[in-house]
Amino acid sequence: MPLGTKKGMTLLPIPAPTYMPEYRTSAKIALETALSSAPAYRTWRRYDRGPSADIFERYQAMPVLTKADLREHQPAGFVPEGRDLASALARGEVELVKTSGSTSDAVTNVWCQGWWDASESSSWKLHAATAAARLGDHREAILSSPRCVGFASDVGYLSMEQRTLWHYLFLNEKADPAEWSATLCDRMIEELGRFEPAVIEANPSFLSVLCRHAIKRERQVFQPAVVTLTYENPSLIHLRHIRSVFHCPVIGSYGATESGYVFMQCEAGRLHQNVEQCHVDFQPLAPRHGGPMLGRILVTTFHNPWRSLIRFDMGDLVRLAAEPCPCGRHQGLTLVGIEGRIANATLSSAGRLVTQREADAAIAEVDGIDQYELVQTGAATLSLRYASDTGDPAAIEIELRASLQRCYGSSVKIIPGHVQALSPVRGVKYRLTRAEFEIDVHDLLAGSP
Ligand SMILES: [Zn+2]
Predict the structure, then answer these.
(1) Which of 32, 119, 274, 314 has the fewest CB atoms nearer than 10 Å to its CB?
(2) pLDDT (tens digit per residue) in 404-414
(3) What is the C-alpha separation between 432 and 441, in angstroms, rounded?
(4) Which residues, 6 or more positions from 10, have their beta carbon under 8 angstroms from its beta carbon?
(5) 13 in Cβ contact with 294 (< 8 Å)
(6) Per-residue pLDDT at 127 exceeds 80
(7) C-alpha 265 – ligand 1 centre gap (Å)
(8) Pairing state of beta strands 250-256 and 226-229?
């Protein structure tokens, strides 16, 4: 039975993914290990259809794991019984890592570096450039919030040596790109030239700021084999800045601290599931909100001896590809793209879901906007703060109103505000779009009243 269907429901035109026999085995082991031995899933056992049922039907019969569940059972409830977490922590085999999201409270995760490295390494097979680059102990420069990864310093600056760990160089110690000086941006460009990384891994909002500096000052920037974008869903505006500086493949990589690497963009621009490391359940949205090709995803991880994660709601919406990808990869789900977080969703004046990707496309049509933050303050009111290096605010705002009204409805009131620069939420991540009222995903899903 294709994903996204249930007995008694109308079959939806969702392409059925293909899976190898070893995938089914990994999916079975992950589910049975969690149900039999991870305390957090004890109450899930009653939903199991049993070992003779199809493994994907067994998955679909299970509840959804939420961030609230992670908080409630953190971290020991997800460790399979018989494993001694205290000893493993003392030996340094695992660590406890807190995730610091932009929209909800922190969760403590058991972090197993070997599992993470395996997840990253298998994701590299999903793009020809990363598959060919012999990655592993390559030099990699990272540009993201130092409150997420790397070394933060709120007072002085840190030397290149102080920001280097193993084969990684963390380019910045300052969490707010709005406060990056021209000297700091020049230092990052100069360090890229000295370090010569094979890979630049970046938060696209942060890299976009550095690229705007390079464009404005006409700086030459070292070209790695690839740029991978992660931490946030990139805006088309970010991609424009990044692609005008970096001429190598710029690859979207999707995952999370909890899930590892889940999807990676191939050379044809689609995103493929990291089938060696995870299972993904897709739940379509109702047609009036863009379903059935648009939906949310629930991720199950494979091969993590220290943490059972089953059907974890990533909080993101994705769009399935209707056709096989021209790159030839066919296992697991293939996506046209990540549509953005449910927490960043907004609604049209008619009450239809507008994803971050859809709002972003409308804003990116307007010439001259370099950064923005769209907040839906009421059912028919949008406030948009934006930064522009070169544009004329009067011309921008005329175009902006027209473009956003095409997307949200002609009765929607647009309140623009020109600012010098925008800062990430709590110095961690930018939120490009959001509503000030709650949008419950259960109201968007297919089958909702
Ligand atoms: Zn492909």
Answers:
(1) 32
(2) 999 999 999 99
(3) 19
(4) none
(5) no
(6) yes
(7) 7
(8) parallel
pLDDT at 82: 92
Whole-number Å distance between alpha carbons of 43 and 57? 18
Q: Report the CATH number of the 346-443 domain.
A: 3.30.300.30
Q: What is the CATH number of domain 21-120+253-344?
A: 3.40.50.12780
Report residue 21: phi and psi, to 5°: -55, -40
- Cα of 326 vs centre of ligand 1, distance in Å, is 6
Give the pairing type, strands 260-265 and 250-256: antiparallel
CA of 130 to the centre of ligand 1 (A): 13
Over residues 38-82, the pLDDT tens digits come to 999 999 999 999 999 999 999 999 999 999 999 999 899 999 999
Evaluate if residue 85 carries a pLDDT over 80. Answer: yes
pLDDT in tens, 347-362: 999 999 999 999 999 9
- CATH class, domain 128-248, is alpha beta
Return the domain boundaries, the chain.
21-120+253-344, 128-248, 346-443
Residue 327 Cα to ligand 1 middle (Å): 4
User: Which letter does DSSP use for residue 126 in this model?
Assistant: G
Dist. CA 68 → ligand 1 center (Å): 34
* Strand partners for 338: 318
Average per-residue pLDDT in the chain? Answer: 93
Tally the C-alpha atoms within 13 A of residue 261's C-alpha that lie toward its C-beta: 25
- How far from chain centre, in Å, is Cα 9? 31
Spacing, Cα 335 to ligand 1 middle (Å): 9
The total of other beta-carbon atoms located within 10 Å of residue 149's CB is 16
